[in-house]
Amino acid sequence: MPDNRATPFLSILGLLTLWVVAALLTDDPQTLPTPWQLIPLFQRELASGELVHHLGATLIRVMWAFTLAMGFGVALGIVMGRSERVNRWLDPWLVIFLNLPALVLIVLCYLWIGLTEIAAILAVTFNKIPNVATVVREGARALSPDLDAMAKVYRMSWLARLRHVVLPQLAPYIAAAARGGVAVIWKIVLVVEFLGRSSGIGFQIHLYFQLFDVAMVLVYALSFIFVMLLVEWAILQPWERRVRRWRSA
Amino acid sequence: MIKVAILSKSYGDTQVLGRVEFAVQAGETVALVGPSGIGKSTILRIVAGIDGAFEGQVERPDAAAIVFQEPTLLPWRSALDNLLLTCPGLKPDAALHALDRVGLAGKDKEFPGQLSLGQQRRLSLARAFAGRPGMLILDEPFVSLDPHMADTMMTLTEDLIAEARPATLLVTHAEAEANRLADRVLRLQGDPATLKAES
């Protein structure tokens, strides 16, 4: 039996093998190139600065949308989880926005605000806020009433309560919303760029889609997947381990 | 000093408390006893300021502390931080001394989950006394302990109360506990609950 830590690598290796076999069977680089056929294209885009430029543009949009969606979503989730009255008022909105297709919000934002950076980021943010709020609301409903009472008796300030009593209890919910959020947000950002921006991975995919260039579509898509995996491994997972360290202590 | 003048307390249409009036002087320990479900915890929550939906008035000192049935600690913060965060203005040296006083010297960096249940209860006591409270509320703090542990904790609590001399309200259904720790015992009875004459 292989070491458990090696399993993800073996799994990815299996996916690569599948790709190679499919590419060899297809025997048409225009339809499905092999991984090694992408390497020179990747090097060319990297050297020209195009790849970095478009990766950066998408990453900035992802970061803005992620920050705004998490900020507003967490705040909304806490308020809705803590106040039954507010929840009764806002729950129908949440249901509507949860069921509104991302594409509709993107198109409406572009129509109402124009083909601007603000419209693009807002469209992604509005798409993600309901999901974050829904997850965090469940966490806020599960907050310990005993800890709440303790904080009240000891007269902890609202900021201290938020930081040391409420947010640590919500951390697993926020972490779940954040990880799910990043995965969804970058995909929506690509759609937003596809439809109405002149930079970013989505824009490049749109360009090479029009040229029927599968290899370049894959170069840009895989590059960004790699960046998002780095974000997951280098930022999100260490942060999650940090907020959970008291559980394993 | 704690001054309690509750006229009534209801949950929906059900009145659970009638007129309940008493005072606890600084340095005095008053026990509130009565059968389960009569409203002891409701009075405790009102006196502690956790429940403000009642008719009447409660006067209490600014610095308050509470010891619950369960330790009710912040499991994601160290033992030392559990004291510092709940007692604003407490210096780290004083917090370390408070830990030492309850037998938790050297445990300051540990998370509550790394402590035994007995140590967690000691930490809860240390937190209650670290801020030199004017009012202390004890909510059946020895209820689930074995007799030996309960005796040890009661002795420690007696010593700490004697040192800090807060106005202490002990809520319990154990007569022996009330008789040992309290200067006076108040009994709740009836429906809605009111106080029986003091013993």
How would you characterize this protein structure?
- The complex is a heterodimer of chains A (249) and B (199).
- Chain A contains eleven helices and no strands.
- Helix content of chain A is 85%, strand content 0%.
- The model of chain A has no long low-confidence stretch (mean pLDDT 91).
- Chain A has a single domain (36-244), classed as MetI-like fold.
- By secondary structure, chain B is an alpha/beta fold.
- Helix content of chain B is 33%, strand content 26%.
- Chain B has helices at residues 40-48, 79-86, 92-101, 117-130, 147-164, 175-181, and strands spanning 2-11, 14-17, 20-24, 29-33, 55-59, 64-67, 135-139, 167-171, 184-189, 194-195.
- The model of chain B has no long low-confidence stretch (mean pLDDT 91).
- Classes of the chains: A mainly alpha (249), B alpha/beta (199).
- The A-B interface holds A 146-147, 149-157, 160, 164-165, 168, 171, 243, 246-247, 249 and B 45, 48-50, 62, 64-66, 68, 70, 72, 74-77, 81, 85-88, 110-111, 113-114, 127, 131, 137.
Give the SSE map:
The complex is a heterodimer of chains A (249) and B (199).
Chain A: H1 7-26, H2 35-48, H3 50-82, H4 84-99, H5 102-113, H6 117-141, H7 145-153, H8 158-196, H9 201-210, H10 214-243, H11 245-248
Chain B: E1 2-11, E2 14-17, E3 20-24, E4 29-33, H1 40-48, E5 55-59, E6 64-67, H2 79-86, H3 92-101, H4 117-130, E7 135-139, H5 147-164, E8 167-171, H6 175-181, E9 184-189, E10 194-195
Parallel strand pairs in B: 4-8, 4-9, 6-7, 7-8
Antiparallel strand pairs in B: 1-2, 1-3, 1-5, 9-10
Helix pairs in contact in B: 2-3, 2-4, 3-4, 4-5
